[in-house]
Design a protein that fits this description.
InterPro entries: Homeodomain-like_sf, Transposase_8. This protein is mainly alpha-helical. It contains 4 helices and no strands. The chain has a domain of 54 residues: Orthogonal Bundle (Arc Repressor Mutant, subunit A). The protein is 55% helix and 0% strand. The longest helix has 20 residues. The termini are far apart.
């Protein structure tokens, strides 16, 4: 089985970042104290330095803006669908007569 992904709230992440930036602790020390991986602390610090508190908020499952992601398909209007199906039927009839 794979690892269970834990999520942390912004306050916990801020505490880890403060221990690193303000208290001068290393990634390893902060990670041991809080029971997380050093790479996680490093990522949080980088996000905090780049974006501030918004960098520490959960981003998974949120759209980044309009037009992002898979485009939605517009259903065919009934008239276009009828014309397409009639053309398809005509072609099939022609093929059956050969």
């Amino acid at each position: 089985m794979g690892k269970i992904r834990r999520t942390f709230d912004a306050a916990f992440k801020k505490k880890a970042v403060d221990l690193y930036l303000r208290d001068g602790m290393g990634y390893e020390t902060v990670a041991k104290e809080l029971g997380i991986e050093p790479s996680v602390v490093r990522r949080w610090v980088e996000h905090y330095q780049a974006e501030g508190m918004t960098g520490l908020e959960e981003k998974r499952g949120k759209a980044k803006g309009p037009g992002i992601g898979r485009p939605r398909t517009n259903p065919e209007d009934p008239e276009t669908k009828i014309k397409r199906l009639e053309a398809e039927n005509a072609l099939l009839k022609k093929l059956l007569q050969m």
